[in-house]
Amino acid sequence: MTIARWDLWNSPCPPTPKFVNTTLDFSNFDYHTPTDQNLTLFYGCPSGVSGLDKANYFPCGLDNIYFVSESFTGIDELFEKCHRNIRVPVLGTALKNESFGLQKVLNQGFDVDYHNFWAITCLGCEASAGICGFNSSSHPFVCLCRDGDRQPLFCSSMHACSFLFSLLD
């Protein structure tokens, strides 16, 4: 799944900047997939920072602002000299595309792996003709079967196997 930051969607110069790094709830998402790269936006930098190309500069009011990927060798100088910074994951392919400007790179977003164990487990339970439930005293998830039995994942192995094979296709 590809997602993008809403606060940077229209402009890397938000009207009421909150200067926060991109963070996700790792119980539902993983990022830093092989397709992603971190981009750091530096705000309030002095003019003429060494080692930066004009392509890394973008205007934002009266601020001097630069963006660099995490592989930029002079990144430590920017951390020292610039007032604020934020890290934003972006698609590596968008970052390497020289025809893309900063805004298009930000709007392309970044890839995440969405994983919700309980949602997938519940689908498997329902595919085996069960009803999803929770048992707070022993196991957080139970599959309530038609015969009154309670199973940790599926009601019958035959339905469970066909469900698992359909997930793998």
UniProtKB/TrEMBL annotation:
Keywords assigned by UniProt, alphabetized: Glycoprotein
Annotated ranges, domain Wall-associated receptor kinase C-terminal: 74-148
Residue ranges the record marks as coiled coil: none
Gene Ontology MF terms: kinase activity
Signal peptide: none
Designated name of the protein: Leaf rust 10 disease-resistance locus receptor-like protein kinase-like 2.7
Organism of derivation: Quercus suber (Cork oak)
